[in-house]
Amino acid sequence: MNPHVTILLQSLIGGIGMGSIYALVALGYSMVYRSMGLVNFAHGNIFMVGAYIGTVFYVSMHTNFVLAFALALLLTAGLGMIVQKILRPLEKMDLIYMMLGTLGIGIVLQNLSIIIWGPDGIAVPFPINNTPWMVKGISIAPYTLVIVGVAALIVIALQLFLNRTKIGLAMRASAQERDMSLALGMNVGLMNGLTLAIGSALAACAGMLVGPVFYVSPDMSTSVGINGFAAAILGGFGSMPGAIVGGLVFGILEQLVATQVSAWSEVIAFVIFVVVLIFKPSGIVGERVVDKL
Predict the structure, then answer these.
(1) Please, which residues bridge with residue 133 across strands?
(2) What is the DSSP string of the chain?
(3) Residue scoring higher pLDDT (69 or 84)
C-alpha cells in the first residue's frame, strides 16, 4: 500500500478513537446548554473527577473494569445532581452568575482532586490485551475499537432515552417550553438536575475510556476537557449531532497534524478550528438558532 495512504488511514483510525472521546465530552456540554442555556465551565473538571473515581475502583480496589466503569458513571451522575443543587439558587439571577458559579465549582473540584489524589498522574492498565493488529501495514490497537464501540453504544442509548422514554420526553419538553412546563406543574428543577447528571455521566464515560490511554491526572481536565469544549463549538454549540461531528472532526484533525508535526498538533488543530468558525460561526452542523432537547 502507498505509504501516504497508510499514514492517512492510520491517522483516521486514531482520530476516530480520540474523536469519540471528544464527542462524549462535547455531548455533555451541549446537553446542558440546550436544556439550561448554560455553559458549564466545570464540565472538564467533572470529566477528570469521573476518571479518578473509576480509577480508584479499577486500580486501587482491583474491581472489574466494567463494574468500575458503571460505578464511575453512577457516582459522577450524582455529582452532577449536586452541582445542580448548588447552582439552583442562582437560576433566577442573570445567567452570568451561574456561569461564574460553574467556574468556581470547577476550581474547587480541581483543587480537591489534587488534595485527595495528589498532583501526579495514575497509570491505568488496559482492560484488554492491546497488542496492535497489523492489517496491510496499518497498526490497529484493539482498545481503540473498544473506545469507538462503547461511545457509539452510549450515543445510541442516549438517543433512545431522550426519544422513547417518558423521562426523556419530559426533559425535552422542559427544555423547549420552560414556562409552559412550570405552568403544567412539571418539576423543571428536577429535569435540569437530570440533564446535568447525564452530562456528567457522559464526561465520566469519556474519562474512564481515555484513562488507559493517558495518565489520569488533574491536568486532563484542561487537555481533553478543553478539546471537548472546542469540539462542541466546532460542531455547533448546543447541537447534539454537532457535538458528535465536531468531536470526530477535531480528533481526526489533531491526528492528521500530529503525523506531520507532532509538537504542534494541538496548536495547528486549534488554528484550523478558528478558521472554520470564521467562515461558519454557527459550527459545522450550522444551527443558528439552537433547538432545545
Answers:
(1) 140
(2) --HHHHHHHHHHHHHHHHHHHHHHHHHHHHHHHHHHS---TTHHHHHHHHHHHHHIIIIIS---HHHHHHHHHHHHHHHHHHHHHHHGGGTTS-HHHHHHHHHHHHHHHHHHHHHHH-SS-B----SS--PPEEETTEEE-HHHHHHHHHHHHHHHHHHHHHHHSHHHHHHHHHHH-HHHHHHTT--HHHHHHHHHHHHHHHHHHHHHHHTTTS-B-TTHHHHHHHHHHHHHHHH-TT-HHHHHHHHHHHHHHHHHHHHH-GGGHHHHHHHHHHHHHHH-TTTTTT-SS----
(3) 69
Give pTM, 2 decimals. 0.89
Provide the pLDDT for residue 261: 66
Residues 32, 233: Cα–Cα separation, whole Å: 14
Query: What is the arithmetic mean of pLDDT over 172-183?
Result: 81
pLDDT digits (tens, 9 = 90+) for 16-64: 999 999 999 999 999 888 888 888 999 999 999 999 999 999 999 999 9
274: amino acid identity, one letter? V
* pLDDT beyond 70 at 293: no
**How many Cβ atoms are within 10 Å of 167's Cβ, its own excluded?**
12
Q: How many residues in the chain?
A: 293
CA distances from 280 to 96, 125, 214, 254 (A): 26, 41, 32, 20
Other beta carbons less than 10 A from residue 135's beta carbon: 11
Contacts of 88 (CB under 8 A, 6+ apart): 189
Q: Angle 115-121-126 (CA atoms, 0-180°, nearest 5)?
A: 135
Question: What gap in Å lies between CA 267 and CA 86, rounded to an integer?
Answer: 35
Say if CB 127 and CB 65 are below 8 A apart.
yes
Residue 276 has pLDDT above 80, yes or no: no
Cβ-contact 173, 156 below 8 angstroms: no
